[in-house]
Amino acid sequence: MSPALLVAREELRFMARNRSAAIGVVLLMLLTLVAALTAAHHQREVAEFRARQQLAAQQAFEAQPDRHPHRVVHYGHFIYRPLPALAAFDAGVDAFTGNSMFLEGHRQNTANFGDVRQSSLLVRFGQLTPAFVLQVLAPLMLVFLGYGAVAREQETGTLRALLLQGATRRQLFGGKYLALAAVAAACLLPALVGLVPIALLPGQALRVALLVLAYAVYLLVWCALVLSVSMLCRRGRDALLVSLAVWVWLALLVPRVAPDVASAAYRLPTRLETDVAIQRDLRTLGDSHNPDDPHFAQFKKQTLTRYGVQRVEDLPVNYKGLLALEGERLTSSLFERYAARDSVIQQEQNLLVRTFALLSPTVALRGLSMTLAETDLRAHERFLIQAERYRYTLVQQLNQLQADSVSMADDTAQDAGADQRKRISSAHWHEIPVFAFQPPATTEVLRAAGAALGLVGAWLLAALCMLIAAGRRVGVAR
Description:
The chain is mainly alpha-helical. It contains 20 helices and two strands. It has helices at about 5-15, 20-60, 70-75, 95, 115-120, 130-145, 150-155, 160-165, 170-200, 205-230, 235-265, 270-285, 295-305, 320-355, 360-375, 375-405, 410, 420, 425-430, 440-475, and strands at about 75-80, 100-105. It has a two-stranded antiparallel ribbon with strand order 1-2. Helix 6 (about 130-145) packs antiparallel against helix 11 (about 235-265), helix 10 runs parallel beside helix 20 and helix 15 packs antiparallel against helix 20. The model is unreliable at about 115-125 (pLDDT under 50). It comes from Xanthomonas hortorum pv. vitians. Keywords: Membrane, Transmembrane, Transmembrane helix. This is DUF3526 domain-containing protein.
């Protein structure tokens, strides 16, 4: 057995003899396992709930009786975003962004019913997921187990004796690093067991493999940081205090401050402010109910010319349906403009948050983890874009039904039987396609995760360089 492995074995034996250390490792492994099981159970329940709600919403939409198409436009439709498989590992922003949308004409709604909005304030402090345990609690365990790995040897004087007996710094410190890495692997093992069933799902194997690799590299970064601090401090007490300060800075403070700084630097208008701005701009677009409105007067002229008639009553289609089609086209273009503005601001915020990954490996890993799990803001925006596209198609299909299936005479009639003549068969509601969310391809997810994966790797390289530099200083008179 090589000297480094002998040192690692003795270090692990020392940890095992320390009851508190052994109990801590076992408890963290159990906590990771419990987090994996509870998160998987919660994910399954949420996925089933959303599927049931989506089915109920679709059945309610198709169960509408014969009615005027424009009433169906205002009746609206609910859609739900399916939960990604890896959300059981890292819930990401899903609890904050909402998971369903109400689709209706003339309005673009936001996602609703996020867990944070429906639960107690405790949800805001973080969910017990394997990602949270490995990102925050596992490094703390490594701090408590590794702060004295070298400082203890220096404090008792055994380090000099080991070096005088022929052990090299590389063998001695490499063995202690291997011991901490073994503890990190033990912390990662329960999460790995929970990820195996997800990896067997179609298209998930490569993502799971990269996720495990990223967390393994992240924990190795912490092993190097903790051991470096232990080398640079002569006393165990000092090493513990410095290591805890490093953990607070890297795992808690920077990840917490980064979003606040980004929000302050790039302010996102509130929903109320956006609605007010949209209503203001809607007044300048044109009013289809005003015969003197310039835009719709020109639209009327172009429509009559296209069909070769002099009056809207002579059109082969219902002019009110054509007005609805044009009005929805105008309002939707306005909605898309404001949505694009918000998307640009959020991308700038995310870019600023990612720069904080230079100050904390936790920030880098968190972004990478959410990207691979499809629970980041990019995945949420994908749902919003597809939902708006479906909303526009749904509304315009109903407006086209009004133009083609309801006559202008019946649509404007006020007699007793007019309401019945305006209605069309409910069979049309069954012809409207069902909403189907399209997740991103694996290649697209990997491209998005590339930069964050590189940052995590860069942190490992920097931590190892620090470890080597600190190792050269050990034993030097100070």
